[in-house]
Amino acid sequence: MVASAIFITDLTGKPLISRNYRGDIPLTSAIEKFTSYLLEVEDEVKKPVFHVDANGDFLGSEDVGCTGAGGETFVYVQHNNLYLCGVTCKNSNVALMLTYLYQLTSLFQDYFSTLNEESIRDNFVIIYELLDETMDHGLPQSLDSTILRQFITQEGNRMADDSKSKPPVALTNAVSWRAEGIKHKKNEIFLDVVEKINLLVAASGTVLHSEINGAVKMRSFLSGMPELKLGLNDKLMFEASGRSNQARAGKSVELEDIKFHQCVRLARFENDRTISFIPPDGEFDLMTYRLDTHVKPLIWVEAVVEPHRGSRIEYMIKTRSQFKSRSVANNVEISIPVPPDVDSPSFKSSVGNVTYLPDKDCVVWTIKQFHGGREYLMRAHFGLPSISREEVDGKGSGGGGSGGGGGGGAGMDTSWKKPIGVKFEIPYFTVSGIQVRYLKIIERSGYQALPWVRYITANGDYQLRMA
Amino acid sequence: MATSYPPSNMPVPGGPGMPQGAGAPPAPGGGPGRDDSYFTESRKGEVNELRQLLRTFGTEKDKQRKRDIMKKVIAYMTLGIDVSRLFTEMMLAIETRDLVIKKMVYLFLCNYAETHPDLAQMCTNTLVKDSGNEDPMVRGLALRALCSLRLPQMIEYTSEPLRRSLQDGHAYVRKTGVMGILKMYHLNREEFDKAAFNDILYDMLRDPDSSVVTNCILVLNEIMADAGGMALNRAVMLHLLNRIHEFSEFGILSVLDLVPRYIPANDEEGFQIMNLLDPVLRTANAGAVVATIRAFLSIANAIGKRPGDDREDGSPSVDDLKRQVCVRIKAPLVTLIASGSNELTYVLLKYADQLIDLCPGIFDDEYRNFYVRYSDPTHIKHSKVRILAKLANVETAPDIVAELGELVADVDETMGRLAVRSMGSIALHDSGGQGAVESIARRLVEMLDLHGIPHVSSEAATALAGLVRRHPSIITVVSAPLPRALRYITEPMGKASVIFLLGEYGESITEAPYALEKVIDSYDNITDEGVKTALLAATVKLFFQRPPEVQQMLGRLFKKATEDASSQDLHDRALFYYRLLRSSPDPNVAKSIITSKSMTMSTDQFAEEDDSELRAVLMDEFNTLSTVFCCKAENFIEEDQIVKFVKLPKEHPLPREAAVAPITDPGVNTITDQFGGASIAAPPAPAPAVAAPAPAGEMDLLGFGDDSLTQSAPAPPSTNSLQSLSLKSNVTLTGEEYQSKWGAVPDSEGVVISALPMNSAPPSTDAVEGALGTFNVFTMASGELPTEFKFFLYGQEEDTFGGGYFLIQAVVMKAPSSLTLTIKPNGGDMDPTKRKEKIDQLVELIKSALGEYLP
Questions:
Q1: Which residue, among A94, A142, A163, A248, would best test binding to B if mutated, counting the most B CBs under 10 Å from its CB?
Q2: Does the distance separating the beta carbons of A69 and B172 come in below 8 Å?
Q3: Which chain B positions have a beta carbon within 8 Å of A406's beta carbon?
Q4: Count of beta carbons in the 10 Å neighbourhood of residue A213
Q5: Can you say whether the dihedral through the CA atoms of B62, B66, B69, B75 is positive or negative?
Q6: Of A219, B50, B257, B799, which residue is the least packed, with the fewest Cβ within 10 Å?
Q7: Given CA atoms B739, B742, B746, B747 in this order, what sign does their dihedral have?
Q8: What distances in angstroms separate CA A330 from CA A27, A199, B110, one per listed residue?
Q9: Cα–Cα distance between B280 and B291 in angstroms, integer?
C-alpha cells in the first residue's frame, strides 16, 4: 500500500487536518478535488473508491483508463461527521488502505473516546503525532493503541529528561500488542459473547437469508504476561481431541468461519483447535465467527396494510417471539414504514408504546420486555390527503392511468417499499448455542483472576419486506 | 473569511463549526474552552502577536505554557494560515528536552522547509545532532524529520546519519532509517546510487526486529520498481516465510505481497507455502486475507499442471488447483463481505466478482449472501445484482430470478436496468437450465408491459432480443406482445430491439407489418439513428416474408431514408437495399442475400463480451485498484508509478525434473497438508523449510550461508540415526491396496513388538497420526475403542533405498498404557538382515515420534 497523503475533512469536505507523506501529489488541490467530488457527485453515484484523471475529471469505475494514465485515486471512509481519506497515485492495495483507515478511526476513538469534528480540533497535536507514527512515507507502521499509548499520551507529559533513555517502542517485543509490566489491583477479565442476527424475509413470508455474526469480545484487566486458554463447545475441537461422543450429543456448535485477533496463536488453532493467547490490555475482539445456518426468526412480524386511496390507510401489525419462554427480549423496537404524506395518526396496541416519526416516515412500536412465546397486536390508522404527493409532483404513477395495461402497473406506485426493521436484545442467550466451557488464566506470579462471561443476542441487519 | 489568509501550501481552512468573531472569545460551551481558543479567527496581526509570544519562549519557565505557545503556532498552521514567517523563532525552540515540543517543531519544519530552503538548511545541524541523541525516540524523530525535509541540496547531510542509524541498537531508529533511505531515493537518485544502500538493505532482511524487516521489504520493492521490486531467491523467500508469525498484522502484508512473485522450486514447496500461509486467512485484517488469496492463486498458477506439460499424472492441473484455492478462501471472503463496513464490502465484492469469473460455480451456494439489503448503499446493491446473475445454476436460478424480479421496479433506475440485464444474462448463459430460460422469458415479456417504467420495458426488450438469438424457440413466448410493446416503448435501445424482433420473426406475428407501418409513418419523429437503421433492416427482411403487405411501406421508407440527411450511413444503406432489389433479375438472389437466417449463437457469450485477456492481466494485478476499476494499471496509472509484475527467481522455472522429486530434507513435510498429496495431519513446524539447503548453483544473494540458516532451524528429527531407512513423504495407498499388501505377507514374516510400556495414553488418534505423519508414517485407518486405540499405518522407502512398503498395525492400550506394533515389510530389499535392520530403525522412528508418551 502506498498512500501519498491522508486527510480528514468534515461532511462538506472542508479539511480539518492533513498529512502529506510523500509529496508526490499537490495536497491542497487534491483536497479541493475531494471536496468538489462530495458536492458535485450525486449521492447514489458516489463510491468509496474513485479516480480523478489528469484533467481533474471524476471518472466512474467503468470509465477509468479511458482518458489516459495519470491522476489520483481517493479512498475514503465516513465516521460520524467526518471523512477520512487517503490519496494515491499508484496502483495501491485498496483493501489495505481501507483497513488502515478503519484502524486509524478506532485508534482515534481509543484515544479520544469519541471521534468527531470537535475531538479532532481538541487534539490536533496528538493526531499529528499519531499520523506520524502509524504511517511513514505512505506505508503503514504500527497501529496498536496499547503500544502507541506508551509514548504518545493525551497529557503529553513524557519528557525526554525524565525518561532515562527507556526504549520508546515495544515493537521489538515478540508480543507486540502488549507491554511488559502491566499492573492491575484486581485481576479481572470480562468476556462477552455477542451474536447478531442478519435476517431477510420476503414479502411472502419465506426467509430469504439468515445468518449469525458472532463475536467474542473481551475486556482484559490482567497484570503481567498472562497466558490464556479459551475453551468453547466447538464441534471440530471435540472431534479433534477425540471426544466425538460429546460432539454428537448436540451440545457443540460448528463454527463456519472464524477470524481471530492477532494475539491468538493460529498455528496452534490449526493444529488442535485450541484458542491460546496473551491478551492485549483493555478492550478487544478476540474472535468473530459466522454461521450460515437457517435460524427461526426470533421475532416475527406480519403486517397487513389496507390503503384507501385518498382517505386513510390502516395497518395491522402482529408480532410473535419465537424463542423459549424463559428468555426475554429487551428494548424491542419494530419500525414500520408508512407513506410520506400521512397525517392524524392513531394507534391501539396490546402492549408497549407506539410513536410516529414523521422525519423518518415510519411508526416505531417499542416493547420494553418481550417474553418468549408471546404474540402481540398493534393497529395503526392514518389519514391520507385526498391528492397523493406523486400526483402533485406530476409523476402520474402507473397504477392510476394504466387502464388495461396488464397487471403490472398496479404495484408500481408503492415501488420498492422500505422493509420492516426490528431491533432487540436478548441477554443470557445465544442462537448458535455457543458456550464458553472454560477460560484458563495462567501467569507466572500465580495470581487468581476472575473471568466474567456474558451472553447476548441482538439484531444485526434484520429486515422483513412488506407485502 | 478566506480572503484574509495569505497564500499558503496548506489547505484552505475554515468550517462552520469553528468559533468566529473578532474578539476571538473561547467557544461557548466548549468544555473548558482550553483548546478551542487555538482555532479563533485570525488576522495577519495575530501572526505578529505569535512572534512576540515566541520571543518570550526562551525565558518561559513553565513547560505547559511553552507547549501552549507551540500549540498555537501549529494550530494556525493546521488552519492553513501561513506561519512560515515565524521560521527563525521556531528554530530557536528546537533545542528543547520536551519531546512534545520537539515533535511540533519538527512538524513545522517539515511543512515549511520546501518553501524556505535557506532557513531550513540552518537547522540541519541541530537535526543531525539530535539524530545522535541518547534517547532512541529523539534519534528516530530527528532522523525522520531530517529525511522528510524534501530538500535535495541537503542530501549530503543526511546520508551519514542515515548510515549510522542502520547500525543503531534500537529497532525504532533502524526502521525509521530504512524508511529514510526511500525518502532519499525519491529526492536525489544520483546521490542515492552513490551511497549504495541496496546491499545493506538486503542484509537487513535478517534484522531480528520484524518491523525493520517489513520496512526493508517495502523500501526495496519501491527502489527496485523497474525490475519488478525486491530481488527474490529461494533463501530469502523461505527465510521470510518462516518468520511470518513474528510480523505485525500490517507487516505481514509486505511478505504476503512477495509471494505472488515467487516461483516455488517445486510442487511440494508450493503446497508447503500455502499450508504455511493458511492460518493468515483467519486473521481479522481484510488486507492480509486478500493478500493471502492472491498468493494462493499465484502459487496455484505456478505449480499446477498445464495441458502439454509432461509431468507425472498425479499432479493437479492449474484449474483444479485454483478451484481448490477458491473453495478454501470462500468462507473467509464471504465473512468479510458480510461483516465488513460498507466501503470494504464494496471493494471485496469487486474481488469476489473477479474470483467468480475465475472459478465459475464456486460461490453458487452462497448466493443468499449476495441478496440486496434495503440499507445497502447504491453501489453495493449494483455490485450484488451483477454478481447474482453469475451465481445462477439449475438449483439457484429460481430463487435468484425471483429476487431480481423484486428489484426490477426499484426507484433507482440503474438498479432496475441492472436487474433486468442480470435476468437476461442468466437465460442467455443458460445457467438456469431450459425451464429457467422460458420462465425468465415470460417474466421479461411481462415487463414489456410495464409502461409505467419506460426504462424497464426497454431493457426487457433488449434482453429478449438477445435471448431469441440464443434460444430461437423462445419466440413463441415473446411474439404476442411485441406489436403492442412497440407502441409504448420509448427508449431507442428497446425500440430498436422490438423492431429487430418484428423483422426477424414477422412471419409468425400477424400484426408485424402494421406495427412497423406505424413507425414508418412517423419516421420524421424518430431521432435516434439506431432505431432508423433497425427499422430499415427489419422492413426489408419482412418484405421477403410477406411481400404483398410490406411492399408499399417499404417504398415509403426507402424514400424517407434516402432523403434523410441526418446520417450518411443510413442513407447509403437505404440506397444499397434499394439498388439490390431493383437490379437483381431474380428476386430470390436478393432474398438469399438479405434473409439468410441469422446465425444462432452456439457459445453462451457474445463476441464483444469476451474479455479473457483483460481478466488474465487483472488476475496478475489482483488486490489493487485495477481490480476495483476493472482496468489495467497501465491505463490509469502514470508509467513511472507502476511496479512491473516480474516473477522470480529465474533459476528454477517450472516444469523441471526437480518437480517430481520432493525436497530431500526430512524436516520439510511437517506441515498440515490441505491441498494435495497425502492428507497428513501434523503440527506445523515453526521453521521447517529453512533447513532445506539452497539448490546448488543458486546465487547466494544475501550471504544466507547454510550455517546461519541451519542454526536457526530446529535440528531435523533424528536424521543421523537413520542412515539406511528413508521414507517417502508423499505416499498414498487405497484401502484395497493396503489389504492386499497386508495379506500378501505371511504372518510369519511380520515382526511383532509387543506391549512397550507407555507413560500415558495419547489423547486422541489425531495426536498419534500427526506425530507419525511428521516422520512419513501415514495412517490408513484408525479407531478408538473403549480400552484401546487402533491404527493401521504404512510407509514407503525412497526408491533409492529399495522402494519397499512397511505395513504397520499399532494398538495403544489406554490403561495401563502400552504400545504393540506388528510390522510387515512388502517388497523392497529381500536380504533378511537388511530387512531386520530397517524394521528396527522403523520401530525406533515410531518410538521417537511418540516420544512424549514413552518413558
A1: A94
A2: no
A3: 446, 449
A4: 18
A5: negative
A6: B799
A7: negative
A8: 49, 18, 54
A9: 9
Task: Report the gap between the CA of A426 and the closest CA in chain B (Å).
Answer: 20
List the end-to-end C-alpha distance of chain B, in Å, as a whole number: 85
Nearest CA in chain A to B145: A132
pLDDT at A404 over 50: no
| Distance (Å, whole) CA B767 – CA B849 | 11
B461-477: b or e for each residue (b if 16 or more CB lie within 10 Å)?
A: bbbbbbbbbbbeebbeb
pLDDT band with cut points at 50, 70 and 90 for residue A394? very low
Between CA B748 and CA A448 the distance in angstroms is 60
DSSP string, A92-129: --HHHHHHHHHHHHHHHHHHHSS-SHHHHHHTHHHHHH
Return the DSSP state at B472: G
Buried b (16+ CB within 10 A) or exposed e, B551-574: eebbeebbebbbebeeeeebeebb
Whether the Cβ atoms of residue B499 and residue B486 lie closer than 8 Å to each other: yes
d(C-alpha B441, C-alpha B401), whole Å: 11
The pLDDT of residue B661 is 34
C-alpha grid cell for residue B744?
A: 500378501
Residue to test with chain A: of B98, B282, B444, B789, most A Cβ within 10 A? B282
Name, in order, each residue with C-beta under 8 angstroms of B196's C-beta and a sequence gap of 6 or more. none
Interface of A with B in 310-349 (CB under 8 A): none
Q: Is A269 on the interface with B (CB under 8 A)?
A: yes
Mean pLDDT, residues A237-262 taken together: 72
Predicted-complex ipTM score: 0.80
- Residues of chain B numbered 121-160 and touching chain A (CB < 8 Å): 133-138, 140, 144, 150
pLDDT band of residue B151 (cuts 50, 70, 90) is confident
* The model scores a pTM over 0.80: no
CA distances from B493 to A92, B436, B534 (A): 38, 25, 10
Question: A402: nearest CA in chain B?
Answer: B452
Strands (E), A124-184: 135-136, 139-140
Instruction: Give the mean pLDDT of B666-687.
Output: 36
In sequence order, which residues have a C-beta less than 8 Å from that of residue A427 and are 6 or more positions away? A328, A330, A454, A455, A456
In this prediction, residue B709 carries a pLDDT of: 37
Alpha carbons B794 and B787: distance in angstroms, whole number = 23
| Beta-carbon separation of B135 and A142 below 8 A | no
Contact in structure between B119 and B151 (CB atoms under 8 Å): no
Residue of B nearest to A398 (CA): B452
Sign of the four-CA dihedral A398, A400, A406, A411: positive
Say if the Cβ atoms of A271 and B99 lie within 8 Å: no
Grid coordinates belonging to B443: 417474466
A308 φ/ψ angles, rounded to the nearest 5 degrees: -120, 105
Note the pLDDT tens digit of each residue in B474-495. 888 888 888 888 888 888 888 8
C-beta of residue B461 within 8 angstroms of C-beta of residue B489: yes
Q: Which three cell numbers stand for residue B571?
A: 442513407
CA angle in degrees (0–180, nearest 5) for A383-A388-A393 = 150
Interface contact flag, B348 A31, Cβ < 8 Å:
no
- A window 289-308, beta carbon within 8 A of B: 290, 292
B452 contact residues in A (CB cutoff 8 A): 397-399, 402, 405, 408-409, 412
Q: Which of B372, B421, B637, B791 best tests the A interface by mutation, with the highest count of A CBs <10 A?
A: B637
Q: Which of B97, B92, B99 is nearest to B59 (CA)?
A: B92
Q: Do B672 and A241 touch (CB under 8 A)?
A: no
Whether residue B436 contacts residue B426, with contact meaning beta carbons closer than 8 Å, is answered with: yes
